[in-house]
Amino acid sequence: MDWLQILSNTGSSILSPATLAYALAALGLAVHFGYAGLLNMGIAGFMAIGAYGYAISILTFGFPWWGGVLVGLVGAVIFALILGIPTLRLRGDYLAIVTIAAAEVLRLLFLTTAFDEVTGSADGLSGYHSSFRDANPIPQGTYGFGPWEYNETQWWVRIMGIITLAFAILLVWSLMRSPWGRVLKGIREDEDAVRALGKNVFSYKLQALIIGGVIAAAGGIVYALPSAISPGVYVTSLTFFVWTALLLGGAATVFGPVIGAVIFWVIQTLLSNVLPAMVQAGVLPFMSSIQAQTLRFVLVGVALMLIVIFRPQGILGNKKELTFVK
Amino acid sequence: MSSSDQTPPVAREKSTGLHTGEIKPGVAKVDPVIVMDGIQRRFGGLTAVDVDHLEIPRNAITALIGPNGAGKTTLFNLLTGFDKPDQGEWSFDGRSISGVPAFKVAQRGQVRTFQLTKALGLLTVLENMKLGAKNQTGERFLPSLFPFLWRAQDEKIEAKAEVILKKFKLDAKSDDFAASLSGGQRKLLEMARALMSDPTLVMLDEPMAGVNPALTQSLLDHILDLKDEGMTVLFVEHDMHMVRHIADWVVVMAEGKVVAEGPPDAVMKDPAVIDAYLGAHQDVDLGVVTGRIPDPSGTGKKAAEQIEAEYEAEVDAEVKAEKRKKK
């Protein structure tokens, strides 16, 4: 086994666009679930809106890259409104069902051949990078050290991802320490009590759905920045991976989702490198290397179960503030 | 807590002269804060609330009593916008609030508590209190991002919250999660939180349920204080001692209708009320009624005998009816 290569790949995953995208999506989900108590099971839908909104507006309408970003984010606002206005009056578990269905509807719309010219259906979209890369101020070359050695384009993607993430963290942090966040946390506990105190609960929930959705859509855009968009990415299992990252870090925390996403991807990368290597080295004689690749998803499922049972508040969370057992 | 820091209870005068004209259900009040007309709420075939006309007097303590299932809590929910009636009109402070959503009703100065206490357990006691304040700049989305816009107001609210918490003897707990409070303390917190909005009308749904006797006394004083501060109180309660002690006006509901209203002493002698709700032996110790405690005056024994006699008469009547049916 080439341990150096494995460790290098693993270390590299800390700064990968996928990690940044997961961190953003998990942060959006923290606003939904951790602070507002909205059981959103359609976070993959919000990410898809961001990614497709970005790529389609560049490819089909010739927008510059920042125009594409705006379209992606505004798309998430509209999606949140469409999703929220009829469903936020529902109780938590019903919202979960509706959101999971809405995300699937969205994915199938992007997948269907009816809109092939715009969405690329099963092939997805690619080749929308020129505007974003033209805006890159970094001179050509390779920078960094160790596992974090990237060329100018790779750095540009990562830097923009990190700036977006930092901005989102600042936004969520300043919202949650304000009286606005206090109302939201009250709603998480008991809507009727907050309603009896004269707060427009529906409006707050809608605002939370929009903000979380926009942050998740930003995650979708960061996910799409380095290479291409494939409809196979924005499936329900993406939603559950983001949930795993969120619960791992701590749902009602600002930095928890970020730490959770990093740990999630570090472990994912490590396992996807180690397990096939172990098969090749004959340590796991009962499975092929393809099976070994899939085994990591089984382990993710097991990890999610263990977190929820034994550490429901996540790594950073306060057990008194958030548990699933009431 | 020593007894010396508690002021001895002072007998407070009851408000009188609240109504105009003859006392009967639906009597007009001198200065009503709530006026209801023809309110009906049906759940399927059951008419839970059917109130023709009812006025709640301002700056007085009104008790809403009645047997279980009389529609008291449903009426509460209707008045506060948590439920919508099938028909009817009602106004608060001279303005119609029919069909107004719950949060707007609360903003207009009519706050309520719940029968099953709704302390927000995973917020601290102080956060619970601050949530109660109205018109907070920092609760709007954009201003919330800029602390300099709301910090001063927030500090004012915090100071006010601390004063109220002190009064309710919860100040030592202000940084604890509300989930760590006892049931009685949660009742206190819910009431204290409602006061943060400077309401015109406070509606308390069974404020004494599950509260120990010593705490009951201080809760009663708090409720009386509300009146002194110019607020109106409407509460649902089953504890007749409390109703007698603090209520200026009593409204009795049974099967969704207002069957009687009036000053407490008069209402509780009303045969209709005794029949529908209080029962004939409300003043007798339960132990005396069951014969487990000897009763020097003999009233208890008499009561027990009377109950037995009534019971037997009822059984007899039923048996006779059965026989008649069989024939």
CATH topology of chain A: ABC transporter involved in vitamin B12 uptake, BtuC
What is the strand arrangement across the widest sheet of chain B? 6-7-8-3-9-10
Counting DSSP H or I runs of 4 or more residues, the number of helices of chain A is 14
Report helical residue fraction of chain A.
55-70%
Query: Distance N terminus to C terminus of chain B?
Result: 71 Å
Strand content of chain A: under 5%
Instruction: Give the CATH level 1 class of chain A.
Output: Mainly Alpha
Return residue spans of chain A where pLDDT drops below 50 for at least 5 consecutive residues. none
| Class of secondary structure makeup of chain A | mainly alpha
Concise account of the structure shown:
The complex is a heterodimer of chains A (326) and B (327). With 326 residues, chain A is an all-alpha fold.
Q: Which key terms come to mind for this protein?
A:
heterodimer, A: 326 residues, mainly alpha, two-stranded antiparallel sheet, 14 helices, 69% helix, B: 327 residues, six-stranded mixed sheet, four-stranded antiparallel sheet, 12 helices, 39% helix, globular, disordered N terminus
